[in-house]
Amino acid sequence: MVRKGSASSEASEGSWCDCVAGAVPISKVLELMDSVGFIECEHVGLTNYRTSDHTVGGTFRAKKPLEISYRSQPKR
């Protein structure tokens, strides 16, 4: 994303995506992954990337089944 503005009003290069969508608890990420059809969803660990004193990046892993059943969307 590019925007115009004075240097004092622009965010640093490294923080352009920090918490744009908000922080999500680990349990909610796993729930979301499961709800769209991924299987064997797991939280692998935390990264050292922090956007505040209260947030930290996470790594997740899951498998995509051969045929995904979209449980959160109506059938067509």
Task: Output the keywords.
76 residues; alpha+beta; two-stranded antiparallel sheet; 13% helix
Report on the architecture of this protein.
The protein has 76 residues and is of the alpha+beta class. The protein has one helix and two strands, in the order αββ. Strands 1-2 form a two-stranded antiparallel ribbon. The radius of gyration is 17 Å and the shape is elongated. The chain starts with 25 loop residues before the first helix and ends in a 13-residue tail after the last strand.
What's the short version?
This protein has 76 residues and is an alpha+beta fold.
Beta-strand residue fraction:
15-25%
Please give the largest β-sheet: 2 strands, antiparallel
Distance between the termini: 35 Å
Tally of separate helices: 1
Mean pLDDT: 74
In total, the number of strands is: 2
Structural class: alpha+beta
Order of helices and strands: HEE
Multimerization status:
single chain
Shape: elongated
Q: Main sheet: which strands, in order across?
A: 1-2
Roughly how many Å is the radius of gyration? 17 Å
Enumerate the spans where pLDDT stays under 50 for 5 or more consecutive residues: 5-11
User: How helix-rich are the residues, as a percent range?
Assistant: 10-25%
